[in-house]
Amino acid sequence: MLLQALAFYVFATVTVASAAMVVMSRNPVYSVLFLILAFFNTAALFVLIGAEFIAMILVIVYVGAVAVLFLFVVMMLDINISEMRQGFLKYLPIGIMIGIVLFAELLIGVGVIGDSSETLTALNAHGPQVLAGDNTRAIGRVLYTQYFYLFQVAGLVLLVAMIGAIVLTLRSRPGVRRQRVSEQLYRPRDQVLEVVKVPTRGGV
């Protein structure tokens, strides 16, 4: 228990510090790197509470795809940092208010604020049942039985979104030469091959 508590405080401290550096860092590339560090430490916190499936999804999806995409986009774009910071103090009070509201919602949802703590009661009631089995198997059982149709609809929505993104970005511009494999394969022989008779001791 002591080692688990020590690991929790270490990962939590690094997560909070890296999350603060995401906002406070002057270089956008460093901000994305601190974001990846925050994701890794958050995944470690999920492993500590026994949610290894969520930890793996966090690493694969957010670190492996989203954060790396952010990093490439930030590195390819020519971002003027001075222009981005001109409106920082202007929107700082609104950001602080939104942060306070979100933090209060988290406390209410967990049950720290308010008379009724239904979330904590439910966690205490179903805690032994959750800890007794593998949470990955439990999530898969619920996802592919009770929420099977909703899961398929979510996949269909993502497929439509992907096709829409391809259609919106695919543009045909005049003057651009494109490779057409079917025309290359079915060309007549006289267009691609020319037989030349070279005389002996002579050239072409």
Describe the structure.
By secondary structure, the protein is mainly alpha-helical. Among the domains are: 7-78, Four Helix Bundle (Hemerythrin (Met), subunit A); 132-168. Helices cover 74% and strands 0% of the residues. It contains 10 helices and no strands. The chain has helices at 2-24, 28-48, 52-76, 81-84, 88-110, 118-132, 135-143, 148-169, 181-185, 189-192. α1 packs antiparallel against α2 and α2 (28-48) runs antiparallel to α3 (52-76). It is elongated and about 100 Å long. The termini are far apart. The model has no long low-confidence stretch (mean pLDDT 79).
Summary of the model, kept short:
About 75% of the residues lie in helices and about 0% in strands. The chain is mostly helical and about 200 residues long.
**Order of SSEs:** HHHHHHHHHH
Total DSSP E strands: 0
N- to C-terminal distance: 87 Å
Q: Count helical runs.
A: 10
Return the CATH topology of the domain at 7-78: Four Helix Bundle (Hemerythrin (Met), subunit A)
> Class of the domain at 7-78, according to the CATH hierarchy?
Mainly Alpha
CATH architecture of the domain at 7-78: Up-down Bundle
Radius of gyration: 28 Å
Low-confidence stretches: none
Major sheet, described briefly?
none
Helicity level: over 70%
**Strand percentage:** under 5%
CATH superfamily of the domain at 7-78: NADH-ubiquinone/plastoquinone oxidoreductase chain 6, subunit NuoJ
